[in-house]
Design a protein that fits this description.
The complex is a heterodimer.
Chain A: H1 6-12, H2 21-35, E1 40-45, E2 53-57, H3 60-72, H4 76-83, E3 87-89, H5 97-100, H6 102-111, E4 116-124, E5 127-136, H7 144-165, H8 168-171, H9 177-185, H10 191-196, H11 200-213, H12 217-230, H13 235-243
Antiparallel strand pairs in A: 1-2, 1-5, 3-4, 4-5
Helix pairs in contact in A: 1-2, 1-7, 2-7, 3-6, 11-12, 11-13, 12-13
Chain B: H1 12-33, H2 38-52, E1 57-63, E2 69-74, H3 79-87, H4 93-100, E3 104-106, H5 116-125, E4 130-138, E5 141-150, H6 158-180, H7 187-212, H8 216-229, H9 234-242
Classes of the chains: A alpha+beta, B alpha+beta.
Chain lengths: 254, 256
């Protein structure tokens, strides 16, 4: 029987804490460095709406690693984002990876003392929201328990980031942010727990709204949360209405 | 032949089932050889389980990296049944089976006090009286469970239990080796991958259901039949629908 890991537990504690993207990324990265056998962490955003950008890096080396990969367009972070799968490189200097990313591996050796690299995509369904990157100055894979914690942490971080970016109080015109942060996010509007447990209605409804409006999954989710917010209902109930065809989203609707 | 020279009594239904079982395992083994899709494999496996074990319905739940059980395959994509499966993330035979890594049976839910919330929901649903959960075993642990729902109360016969467990074992092998075949990865990632894939399929069901104006269960049938007809992975078809490289009009209605 599995139990929730330490880092993931820390991150779940951040639900309902209203902070900006960067602050959230800082807390996630620091929780990872505290709880995992790594020396540094970084987080980059990969959304289709904006260009890729690094939100946070815990130290100079982590920052150089993010910069190199986004500039060279190669490395574990890029691979994790493109393939949607985690990448583990226990020893950059003694593995086949160096042939996959020759320029990147050379630069890393020259400019940093990082040896082991790990990149985990932060996903929402088929969408990669961003990538969580770790490095260590000694070779070796992360242990099974830590790796599991790291994967769960990346999933949790994805939902936190998505929660942030689709927060109803930022989307509903004329709303009083402070008040609403308390009434919706403070009570989690059922969003986080139902997304974390992968309640199928949330994902089915996301697909339906995405098709109704010709938008992406992230925006479809934002529209549903905004609707739940203005109607003072739980997201899961709104999703249930969409799936039952009691509710359709239209361009005019906000 | 028996020792006294008479022909042994042969139960026709029994040998039929043995033949079906062999065919099922051959088909599943064939699938495992190709570059298969884990959800597609589990979907086939569920269909065989329902048929071979005379179940009314069946579903597979996997534990995620938080230790929460999530549905990955189901004989029915109807919302009511998927809800029953998902309820077991809280309590029920599936949770107990996962915790103990042993088979857990509830031969007659009407007389079973162990999981009041789950039992009440199943009985209210009205189609099932008995539930059995068989562990997806890995080195003495469980990674999830195969759930069998029967309409008529009664324990599963030993033969059925053994056959069900064999199917559950094939599910484990399928989930764990799908990506190991392609990359030398670990159990954790493979579980996560199966669960992620299921989310992509749920979103794609939503898209197709909306575009084609059909129910979610029919949307799944169309996804599956398109994938099989074009020899594509179910997850890839779902992704193409989501990134709009495939359109609902490509999906023919299910032949009646």
């Amino acid at each position: 029987m599995r139990e929730r890991g330490r880092v993931t537990d820390d991150l779940v504690g951040l639900v309902g804490v209203a902070v900006g993207d960067r602050e959230l990324a800082r807390r996630v990265c620091e929780a990872c460095v505290d709880g995992l056998d790594i020396d540094g962490a970084g987080m980059s955003l990969f959304t289709t709406r904006e260009s890729r950008q690094t939100l946070w890096a815990t130290d100079e080396v982590a920052m150089v690693l993010e910069d190199l990969q986004l500039t060279l367009n190669e490395g574990p972070c890029i691979e994790a984002a493109t393939r949607g799968l985690p990448v583990s490189v226990p020893d950059l200097h003694h593995s086949v990876e160096t042939t996959r990313w020759p320029v990147f591996a050379g630069e890393v050796a020259e400019r940093t003392d990082a040896v082991a690299l790990f990149a985990i995509p932060m996903r929402f369904g088929a969408t990669v929201v961003g990538v969580l990157d770790f490095y260590r100055t000694t070779a070796g894979a992360l242990g099974a328990v830590q790796w599991r914690d790291a994967l769960a942490a990346a999933e949790t971080a994805a939902l936190l980031l998505l929660g942030q970016r689709t927060r109803p109080s930022d989307l509903v015109p004329g709303s009083d942010g402070e008040e609403q942060a308390r009434t919706t996010d403070g009570h989690d509007d059922g969003w986080f727990s139902s997304a974390l447990s992968a309640r199928p209605e949330i994902h089915q409804a996301t697909g339906m709204v995405l098709a109704q409006l010709g938008i992406g999954p992230e925006e479809a989710l934002a529209r549903m949360r905004a609707h739940a917010f203005t109607e003072r209902r739980l997201l899961i109930d709104v999703a249930g209405d969409v799936v039952a065809r009691r509710l359709r989203f239209t361009e005019e609707m906000r | 032949m028996t020792t006294d020279g008479r022909e042994p009594v042969v139960n026709a239904a029994h040998t039929d089932r043995e033949r079906s079982a062999s065919r099922a395992f051959v088909e599943l083994a064939d699938t495992l050889v190709d570059d298969y899709d884990v959800i597609d494999l589990l979907d086939r496996l569920i269909a065989h389980s329902v048929h071979l074990l005379a179940a009314e319905a069946a579903g597979i739940m996997l534990a995620d990296n938080h230790g929460t059980l999530r549905m990955v395959a189901s004989s029915s994509e109807a919302a009511e049944f998927m809800e029953l499966l998902q309820l077991q993330a809280g309590e029920g035979p599936c949770m107990d089976c996962y915790r103990t890594a042993t088979a857990v049976g509830a031969p007659d839910l009407a007389r079973d006090p162990r999981w009041p919330g789950f039992t009440a929901a199943v009985l209210a649903h009205g189609r099932f009286r008995s539930v059995h959960a068989l562990p997806l075993r890995l080195r003495g642990d469980a990674i999830g469970a195969l759930n069998l729902f029967h309409r008529i109360p009664g324990p599963l016969p030993a033969d059925d239990l053994a056959l069900g467990q064999a199917l559950a074992d094939v599910a484990t092998i399928g989930i764990l080796s799908e990506r190991a075949v392609r990359r030398g990865t670990v159990v954790t990632e493979q579980l996560q991958h199966a669960l992620d894939t299921r989310i992509v399929i749920e979103q794609a069901k939503g898209v197709l259901s909306e575009q084609a104006g059909v129910g979610l269960d029919e949307a799944f049938e169309r996804l599956r039949s398109y994938a099989r007809h074009h020899n594509l992975r179910l997850a890839d078809v779902a992704r193409r629908l989501l990134d709009r490289t495939l359109d609902a009009s490509a999906f023919a209605p299910r032949p009646r």
